[in-house]
Amino acid sequence: MTSSSNHDVIIVGGGHNGLAAAAYLARAGRDVLLLEKLDHAGGAAVSAQAFDGVDARLSRYSYLVSLLPQEIMDDLGLRIRLARRRYSSYTPDPGSPGTGLLIDNADSEATALSFASVGAPAAEAAAFERFYAECRKLTGALWPTMTSPLPTRSEARKLAEAAGAGDVWEAVIERPLGEAITRGLDSDLVRGVVLTDALIGTFARADSADLQQNICFLYHLLGGGTGDWDVPIGGMGAVSGELERAAREAGATILTSAEVRGIRPGGAVDYRHDGGERCASAGWVLSNVAPAVLARLRGTGGGEPGNPNHRREGSQVKVNLLLKRLPRLLDRSISPEAAFGGTFHINETWTQLDDAYLTAEKGTVPDPLPCEIYCHSLTDPSILSPELQASGAHTLTVFGLHVPDKLITAENNEEMRAVLQAAVVRSLNSVLAEPIEDLLLTGTGGTPCIETKTTLDIQRAVGMPRGNIFHGGLDWPFAEDDALLDTPARRWGVATDDPRILLCGSGARRGGAVSAIGGHNAAMAVLEAGAAEPKFSGAPGFRAES
Question: What is the CATH number of domain 86-120+313-467?
Answer without folding.
Answer: 3.30.519
